[in-house]
Design brief:
It is found in: Cell membrane. Pfam families: MMPL. The chain is an alpha+beta fold. The protein folds into 4 domains: 176 residues, Up-down Bundle (Multidrug efflux transporter AcrB transmembrane fold); 135 residues, Alpha-Beta Plaits (2-Layer Sandwich); 206 residues, Multidrug efflux transporter AcrB transmembrane domain (Multidrug efflux transporter AcrB transmembrane fold), CATH 1.20.1640.10; 111 residues, no CATH class. The protein contains 30 helices and 9 strands. Strands 5, 6, 7, 8 and 9 form a 5-stranded antiparallel beta sheet that branches. Helix 11 crosses helix 28 and helix 28 packs antiparallel against helix 29.
């Protein structure tokens, strides 16, 4: 492998300006790809399209029946006034002419319909008394949109499958139409609804993305100035890794990875992990430039030695991330793809652009006439030439502290390992009680205006979560089917405290037939012909499909997804003892129902992800080292950290989300690098003839400060997540920062006694086998 990288080093050194030109062209290509990135926050980011639950939802409900509503809520002292209804009527006329709007429903249009039945004129009454008489006299019609004297709703219905752009256009048209409707000044107008919330959430994700990247950059500047100041141009790794992020954005667009609440958090992680690659190349090249007079050879040696080492670390990280692909939650799969692409892009940026840029900077510094002046402006001790392997003051301090820690942990090895394992098992036990959160409203900034408006409407009108029953029939006009729907609906509303109301074609039929369902199909067909198509299409498709909606209020936040699963099972059981007519098939679906799939994915799926990541990293290490001790020792501390992480989440009362469910894979991918570096140095020192105790002390003192610096860059990168306005991302950031610190702790506390015990045991086994072999040979010699 080193020969291949040596050839690559020759190529890079001989084509430095060509490499930079290609890198610049790639920036242009990446910029074009970034334009293709889509923002997604809907159901498809939680549940895979191959899932039977999602297919029922998508094919049977979303594409046929589902509609969404942009809601205009009017607040005031008295909403039953003629002046207000005229303003509502003006607004409705404007919105009905908007492209993409299926229909509008408002108190004004309903009042005109009732007034037509009374007077024969389809118009609004002129006085407040007439308006109030119609509204108060028909509570069944108006109670849903005028819940009290101070609030009313105007619903702008759009297709459930409408694109984000269509939703945005209709929302903008609605907001623009409100001023032209000339509402009386004493009323407050709020434009809300699920589409408005989704659009606002996408905008918030887009704006917070820049904030996260900016904070990551600031934190990286701080950590580089703290731990990397002993080299020239110590801030250079930052633009190098940011270049890798730019390339990642481009690949994201071309590959088709959407921007979601989970994928947006990948970039601070990539900065924290990827900058370590740039630091490794930068540090080695500076070392080679100091030691060798031949600058060309310095570039070649850097790429020859550092390229393979960093590539192996990248491969182990990638194996940990690879387990994310086993999740059935699309946003977790996208998160895994983004992390895999990102670490490769950061590696390529570091080995090509980082090395070439530093090489050119060094060449310019030699020609700089001010170099002699700048050389004079150095710290007082800069004139002292460091001996090979000599460390600066801070490195020596960290090294001595780690050496003392190592001695202490080895002295009390049984206690240390015993306590670590007990805490691990305790954390794994507590992990089982960590709740799972899938309510999207809890993931977003709680002070977001669109969320506050949506919650305000929910407090007044009640929630809008639904169970949707798709009823496949032989004839939609079969009176037995309609009577069953009516009877079953009444039973579910009466017996279940979580089902508040039901809506179906039955209510429209009864409304036009004196409150009863006709006994013949022909009578029902005649009624169907008089129902407006827009209303009929919401509950009936062709001649073979009907829709029954159960309103379950705020069930997603009240009884959680597990409660919705139990409610769905109750409805299924009720259908068994109150069966539908022969030839009828019922499928329960809806956005609330398909989140049941998320529960399964986040409970069993996250355990499977962690286990697969463990197996992959273990297998990868064994393939690289061909030694079971070297494969096992770096993994065991990370398994312990995974257990500790469960205890941390339980203690901090942080729920599992699609993002925190990835923690096991991230710990394995990021944290195992520290133990691998310690192990490499341990066996290097041991190969020089030192005893296991001497080797681990030397490893702790010599490479410990480098591992601390590497961990610091990762921690500072993750810390940017803490500032995210999205609670889901902020919680994830908090736990990952703690987990990386725990991984460092395990590297310096758990790893030393573990490696000493296992390696010493193996050495004794080897000595014993060697002694037995020599004894057997002596016995055979004596017999001869």
């Amino acid at each position: 492998m080193k020969k291949s990288f040596e050839k690559l080093g020759f190529f890079i050194q001989n084509n430095r300006f060509s490499v930079l030109l290609i890198a610049f062209l790639c920036i242009i290509i990446a910029t074009q790809g970034a334009q293709l990135i889509e923002m997604k926050s809907g159901t498809e980011t939680f549940v895979g399209k191959s899932s039977p639950l999602y297919q029922d939802f998508d094919h049977l409900y979303q594409n046929i029946f589902q509609t969404q509503s942009i809601v205009v809520m009017v607040e005031g002292n008295d909403v039953k006034s003629a002046d207000l209804m005229e303003a509502v009527d003006r607004l409705e006329h404007q919105l009905q002419a908007t492209d993409g709007v299926i229909e509008t429903t408002s108190p004004a249009s309903l009042i005109k319909t009732v007034n037509q039945k009374i007077t024969g004129r389809y118009e609004l009454p002129k006085t407040d008394e007439e308006i109030k008489t119609i509204i108060d006299g028909n509570p069944a019609i108006f109670s849903q949109i005028i819940p009290d004297n101070n609030h009313m709703l105007i619903s702008v219905v759009i297709p459930g499958s409408a694109s984000d752009k269509t939703q945005q256009d209709i929302l903008t048209a609605t907001e623009d139409a409100v001023p032209f409707a000339e509402f009386p000044p004493s009323y407050n107008i709020i434009v809300t609804g699920d589409p408005a919330f989704s659009i606002s959430m996408n905008k918030e994700m887009n704006s917070s993305m820049g904030i996260l990247l900016g904070l990551s950059a600031v934190f990286m500047v701080i950590v580089l100035l703290l731990v990397f100041r002993h080299v020239r141009w110590c801030l250079l790794p930052l633009p190098v890794v940011l270049l890798g992020i730019v390339y990642t954005f481009g690949a994201m667009g071309y590959v088709g990875i959407p921007m979601s609440m989970v994928s947006m958090s990948a970039f601070p992680i990539l900065i924290g992990v990827g900058i370590d690659y740039a630091i490794q190349f930068h540090n080695r090249l500076e070392e080679e430039l100091q030691d060798k007079g031949n600058k060309t050879r310095a570039v070649i040696e850097t790429i020859k030695h550092t390229g393979p080492a960093v590539l192996i670390a990248l491969a182990m990280t990638a194996l940990g991330f690879f387990s994310l692909f086993t999740s059935t939650v699309p946003m977790i799969q996208d998160f895994g793809k983004l992390l895999m692409i990102g670490i490769v892009m950061c590696y390529l940026s570091s080995i090509f652009v980082g090395v070439v840029t530093l090489s050119l900077f060094d060449s310019y510094a030699d020609k700089n006439p001010l170099r002699k002046i700048t050389n004079k402006i150095k710290p007082a001790d800069s004139g002292k030439k460091k001996k090979p392997g000599e460390e600066n003051g801070s490195d020596r301090l960290i090294g001595r502290a780690l050496q003392k820690t190592t001695a202490l942990t080895i002295k009390y090895d049984v206690v240390v390992l015993g306590v670590a394992c007990l805490l691990c098992f305790g954390g794994l036990y507590l992990d089982q009680s960590v709740p799972i959160q899938t309510d999207v409203q809890t993931f977003v900034p709680q002070e977001m205006p669109s969320l506050l408006d949506l919650k305000h409407m929910g407090d007044i009108m009640g929630g809008s979560d639904e169970l949707n029953l798709i009823i496949k029939v032989e004839d939609t006009a079969n009176p037995d089917v309609l009577k069953w729907i009516d009877k079953f609906s009444e039973h579910e509303v009466a017996t279940s405290s979580h089902i508040h109301s039901a809506s179906s074609i039955v209510s429209l039929v009864k409304e036009r037939n004196g409150g009863v369902i006709p006994d013949t199909s022909q009578e029902i067909e005649n009624i169907y012909s008089g129902i407006p198509e827009a209303q009929k299409d919401r509950y009936m498709y062709g001649k073979n499909m009907l829709l029954l909606n159960f309103n379950i209020g705020n069930a997603v936040s009240d009884i959680k997804v597990t409660g919705i699963k139990e409610l769905t099972n109750i409805v299924k059981q009720d259908m068994q003892w109150m069966p539908a007519p022969p030839g009828t098939a019922v499928t329960i679906t809806g956005s609330s129902v398909i989140y049941i799939e998320v529960i399964t994915a986040l409970t069993s799926g996250r355990v499977a992800m962690t286990f697969l990541g463990l197996v992959l990293v273990l297998a990868g290490l064994f393939v690289v080292y061909r030694d079971w001790v070297k494969a096992l020792v770096p993994v065991i501390p990370m398994v312990i950290v995974i257990g500790w992480s469960g205890g941390v989440m339980s203690y901090l009362n942080i729920s599992y989300t699609p993002l925190t469910a990835t923690l096991g894979a991230l710990i394995l991918g990021v944290g195992s690098e520290y133990a691998i570096l310690m192990m490499e140095r341990y066996f290097e020192e041991k190969d020089k003839g030192q005893s296991p105790m001497e080797a681990i002390h030397m490893a702790s003192s010599k490479i410990g400060s480098a591992i601390v610096a590497s961990g610091a860059t990762t921690v500072f990168g993750f810390m940017a997540l803490l500032a995210s306005p999205f609670p889901m991302i902020a919680d994830f950031g908090m736990v990952t920062v703690i987990d990386v610190l725990l991984a460092l702790l395990a590297t310096f506390v758990v790893f030393p006694p573990l490696i000493i015990i296992l390696d010493t045991w193996r050495d004794k086994r080897k000595e014993l086998r060697t002694a037995e072999k020599e004894t057997n040979e002596q016995i055979k010699g004596a017999e001869i």
